Amino acid sequence: MNPRDSRAHPSPDPHGRGARADALVWEERGAATAASGEGASRATPAIGASVATGASGFATRVFRTRLPLDYAYFSGHFPGEPVLAGVVQLHELVLPCVRRALPGLLPPKRLAGLKFLLRILPGDELDVTLRRAPAAMRAEVVSIDFEIARGGSVCATGSLDVPVPAGGAAP
Description:
By secondary structure, the protein is mainly beta. It has one helix at residues 86-101, and strands spanning 49-54, 57-66, 110-116, 125-132, 141-150, 153-163.
């Protein structure tokens, strides 16, 4: 099973630092809400998604998760005052949601307007909202605005342009 697969279960970091990035479980709302079996105590509750669609694919999609208390990316950043680094927020929260919402796209070619407004802490329940930007109608690039929020308070925002593979059409 691919560790990035939506059914992947959490596993400890090979260096014993806690839950790895692939410990985040991606499932649609209404599906199971937590991993089961061995290692379930490190599991993130399932990430649910609500979807509003438009004529050209999704207009808005919202994913929810709770970060494990022992999430490896908090280790050493910073001792006694853990915070999730901005690059980790993009790579481990935003991009997996984009890949789930629009499978088959290439990695982003542009990030813009990044704002990291509030600290993201171990155990936080987060909503990752993706909105397809109005300029997203170009066939070669899909533009997406994102927001990471905790309890209605915005933690991070930005936008990204994701290229469509050659010969493909924007979803």
